[in-house]
Fold these 2 entries.
Entry 1:
Amino acid sequence: MKKLSPDQKEGHFDDSLEESRMEATTKADEDPRTAVRFPVNLPIQVVTPAGEYEAQTENVSASGVLFLADKALEVDTSVELFLRMPAASIGAKEDVVVQCVGRVTRCSSDSEGAHVAALIDDYRFGKGEGS
């Protein structure tokens, strides 16, 4: 996975997709697990107060993400996730980086690793730097 630029990590994102974000956002009083989930397996960067590492998504929705990590995260841990959506898979001219801010809602471990569910409190779209 291509590393994100410092500008992308610092929140210098293009707000031109704000309307799409608003359409995809669920109501705050809805159960976050009722959102439609998409089985998407993509590498993501995970940033926590304890450090930064790479993981793999298992599914993604407008209100949350389930990812497979090498280590378990405690419930209520703050997370920042950077997910690069390949241009070809979303019909765009260039990759789109989705910056998500949220918190861990559950975590379970098995022989594959830690399956971490995070509720997304906010997200922004940014342009990627190519594949």
Entry 2:
Amino acid sequence: MWAGVRLGLQILRVLLCGTGRFDSDSLPPNFSSVKELNARSGDLRSLASCRHRKGASMRSLTKFLVMPLSFVIFGSPIVAGNFPDSGVPLPAGWNDPVFHLSQNYPEQIPVDSYPWLQFDPATQPDNYMLSVLQYCLEGNAQSDWVLQANTKRGWYHAPWMHWGAHGREPIHGLTFERMSQPGELAPQQTSVLQNWAVGMYNAPGGYTIGRVWSDPLKPNTAFASFPPNTVSIKLLFTEGTPDQVPYLAGSKVWPAYVYVNPQNTGPGAPRVVKTLYLLQVDVAVRDSRVNNTTGWVFGTFIYDGRNQGNDPYSKLRPVGLMWGNDPSLGPAQYQQGARPTETRLYQPTQGIMRHYGWLGRLNGPVDNPKSSCLSCHSTAQWPVKAPMVPPVNTPEGSTIWMQWFRNVPAGQPFSTGSASLDYSLQLASGIQNLAAWSNTCKSNPTAPVVPPCPNIEMLERSAGPRQRRIPLGFPVRR
């Protein structure tokens, strides 16, 4: 272990001071050669320097080192995990604040009050939704969603969502969402619009995330069962302006480092800092009162600039909430006049909502109209054996199609042979991203990735033989 500590100190000296070399006395026996590590030090130093901007703390600079250092004693990492903020370099000349992952996950659930428990989601949906929103805003609105600065209660991000072309951008930690096609947000919308989002969990959720990721290289899906009163909230922003989406007038805006062209979003696609507008807010609550369906209540808000209020948050209006997928509601029943009974839609927002979910189930303005909030999140599992929406060309209402509109109980997987991730697509995305990073490092141990690839022998101890790739399954977004 001391050899690993000495190695870590030398890495820090090389990175922070720009000087120093690795010597053989510092190397644990698993490192193949001093030459290899000395060669790697230049890549690490350049990686750290790209994050060393005004306003970035020493802690953020060293985040890129903690994961490699955890390989030093592979069976028992030196640290429980310190995950990267973003894999995207900051735009040239950026001197304003940057995103930092909130990852000081609690080891036990603190005492808290949960105001929505005084309301029935089925009979008092508006009160339920607004109480959840107010709970989420407390401390976060004042700190502009810098979770570490919230003095009211702890909130936490899910790790490993920095990976890939659609991973966290570096200014606000936003990830790439489904794009809005012309006309989906408003009649005046004439072009495809990018949408970006960031989500976070309260302390019960952070507690669960910390347990799943207690070993940063071996997430434990057995711990992926969220306790009652877990809450997640997601802020969704769009590049659409009030000219194309008039009800966005006066909305909250954030700068973000996003794609220049929404038709070019692949690896290495050009990026630019754009002003994004808050469009949609999603919430999810683990509520044991609805265990007879899914155990979760999902809700969506839309920003409505026509609404009265002194700030953008007061102009958020509920779109609706749902606690079940109405498994028996198909096209035939809908044509006969049946409507969802496990969804509640808010009438005043119907004037600006261009679509909901499939057959009147809940979904927000950014979401897929052929799905629902609970439908896509029910696919959160590992391995990812099912796509988030029914496969293309599946007949609507068919037996296969309706598999996506079951009431999957909390903690149960969507597919046989997978482990449930309890409706958390953020956990699913993170685990899949870790597997993709591992596969990349196996193929190219010197790949310029974040975090840097470890010694291949050490990687094999966690992810299996170099020749064996981890199957990624279907793509996961969010």
